[in-house]
Amino acid sequence: MTTKWALLHTLVWGENMARIKYRDADIDLIARMMRAEAEGEGNQGMLYVGNVIVNRVVADCLDFRDVRSVEDVIYQVQGGNYSFEAVQKGNLFYSPARENERRLARQVVTYWRDHPGKYALWYFNPYAPCPPTWYSQPFAGQFKNHCYYEPAAGSCDSVYV
């Protein structure tokens, strides 16, 4: 379903279509993580990070087979470390979410998606040019300091829904 269809659904039925099941606590977690990871990249950068979080909840593949909730995604441990550096470092992630960040988090769960985060499952700041692949996954695009990576073709169809 495209963003256009989600907007039509909202206009016709008066409700937002969510990509994932969520609670208020999930909105808060997404909002805090978006700020911690991308506040310096403005609202747009925070929205792309939010896309990655929601995409990981939706994805039933690769590193994300056993994550089914926002909380699972945020606190996922891979290789002995949290998937999101902000959980470990504590920076802004442990500060309360502000209303602007909660509004952005609601946008990403109610179907806002855009390139380069639209189908991305990974992003990072390389402090150098973005490599063409990240752990064999293709480069999707860059926004400011973050490089975004989508799953290789045929490896994670669920993220493209």
Automatic annotation (TrEMBL):
Sequence ranges assigned to domain Cell wall hydrolase SleB in this UniProt record: 40-149
Pfam families in UniProt: Hydrolase_2 (PF07486)
Gene3D superfamilies the record matches: Cell wall hydrolase SleB, domain 1
Transmembrane intervals: none
Protein origin, superkingdom: Bacteria
Single GO MF descriptor: hydrolase activity
Protein's UniProt name: N-acetylmuramoyl-L-alanine amidase
Native species: Ureibacillus acetophenoni
